[in-house]
Amino acid sequence: MITPMVPAQRRSVLISGASIAGPALAFWLDHYGFDVTVVERAPTIRTGGYPIDVRGTAIDVVERMGLLPQIRAAHIASRAMTFVDRASMVIGSVPIYEAICSDTERDVELPRGTLTTLLHDATRNGNIDYCFNDSIDTLRDDGKGVDIGFASGRQARYDIVIGADGLHSRTRRLVFGPEAPFNHSLGFCFNLFSMPNDKGLSHGGVVHAEPGRTAAIWAVQDSPRVFGFLAFATDEAPVSTSRDAEEQIRRMRAAFAGMGWEVPRLLDAMAQADDLYFDSVSQIRMPHWSKGRVALVGDAAFAPSFRSGQGTSLALVGAYVLAGELATRDDPQDAFAAYERIARPFVEANQALATDDNGAFFLPRTQKDIETRDHILAEIIRNGTAGMFDNTKARVHNSLRLSDYASV
User: Fold this and answer.
1) Is the pLDDT of residue 331 over 70?
2) What are the distances in angstroms from CA 101 to CA 55, 56, 105, 146?
3) pLDDT average, residue stretch 6-19
4) pLDDT per position as a tens digit, 383-401
5) CA dihedral 71, 76, 82, 88 (to 10 degrees)
6) Is the pLDDT of residue 29 over 70?
7) What CATH number corresponds to the domain at position 306?
8) Residue 139 falls within a domain, yes or no?
9) How confident is the model at residue 261, as a pLDDT?
10) Judging by DSSP bridges, how do beta strands 35-40 and 129-132 pair with one another?
11) For a 10 Å CB count at each end of the chain, is N or C smaller?
12) What's the rounded mean pLDDT across residues 305-323?
């Protein structure tokens, strides 16, 4: 049981976003005695069940929060990713942990909604005020505080404002300007959606790829529903991706026309899904994560893209460091500078996981990429995974040693 700490003078903090970084930050700020408000435009916590990972240093964060036992209990234990040709013939497969995680003791895979629920449950019974169905509309930082106008019409003033509102952060746009200079495309657009598990898929995924086009189906344990995934290569600017679902469905049908395997069924399921999520595969890279009394955390500041596998972990670690530095420094700008100094090397090393090998194994752009992948799969069939995957990722995942702010 963590005993809350109360500073000599309570400071008010508004956090925009109630996904992962927002509630994690709220947890620690409440622990340090801040008055915390979380505003979220959705009507409740979003509980989508697609798998995410808590890895490396982030394991230390959730352990300090007292949540590690529940998170370990939710581990879904995916087994293998199988690659097939257009006729569904198996090319090869890789064990999930050897290919993606590299460190079974420091990695937990769980449904995203389970983690968001755990974080919300850990914060909603404290002094934290959650305001759903609302969002920041206007923001004015006068150097002594931040005046906020909410979409609901409410007005309020806070000592500090934190944007934890994702890849397309409105807080970032209000304070730093348009998204385009910060959003760096990794060359793909993707759609993610759920569909019936009518093929009996269990504890893993099946992938079919052609040059510049990848389709996959992923099962969380033995769930009656699976996740469909479609991604295609594109050179267009990531922020030009339309937010209109019907246009995205038309684009995907055009991009995947004539592709074999289960793609026609995936396209039909995509069009019928009520949980369709689409976006560009991109990263947020900013020269600074704060300005005045406003700072960013999680995807709003440093989205690494799903190709890194580290979005959730960076959000948790960033929230821990940001809260700790705010608790130890009277001037928020000093705290923001320390937060960035500590977290940036870790963030950039983990972002590089998505770009160093260009992700060609899972998202091949060329026929040569596919041939290289198939050669690796053939080597696994002949010799197993020994020596095929090094521990570089595990080292990067664990490369930040957390400061102990317990004495604050």
Assistant:
1) yes
2) 8, 10, 10, 41
3) 83
4) 876 555 556 788 899 999 9
5) -140
6) yes
7) 3.50.50.60
8) yes
9) 95
10) parallel
11) N
12) 95
Whole-number Å distance between alpha carbons of 86 and 45: 39
CB 217 within 8 A of CB 199: yes
Residue-wise pLDDT tens digits, 38-91: 999 999 998 777 899 999 999 999 999 999 999 999 999 888 899 999 999 999
User: Residue 405, Cα to own-chain centre: how many angstroms?
Assistant: 25
Mean pLDDT, all residues of the chain: 90
Residue 247 makes CB contacts below 8 A (sequence gap 6+) with: none
Give Dmax (Cα) for the chain: 68
Q: Give the structural domain span for 153.
A: 12-74+111-181+284-356
Domain count, the chain: 1
Separation between Cα atoms, residue 252 and residue 266, nearest integer Å: 10
Residue with tokens 């893993």: 204
Instruction: Let me know if residue 404 belongs to a domain.
Output: no
Q: Does pLDDT of 16 surpass 70? A: yes
Which tens digits make up the pLDDT trace of 121-180?
999 877 899 999 999 999 999 999 999 999 999 999 999 999 999 999 999 999 999 999
Place of tokens 């500090």: 160
In a domain, 164, yes or no: yes
Q: For residues 239-263, give the mean pLDDT.
A: 85
* Segment 285-303, tens digit of pLDDT: 999 999 999 999 999 999 9
The span from the CA of 182 to the CA of 351, in Å, is 14
pTM over 0.85: yes
Residue 117: what residue type?
T
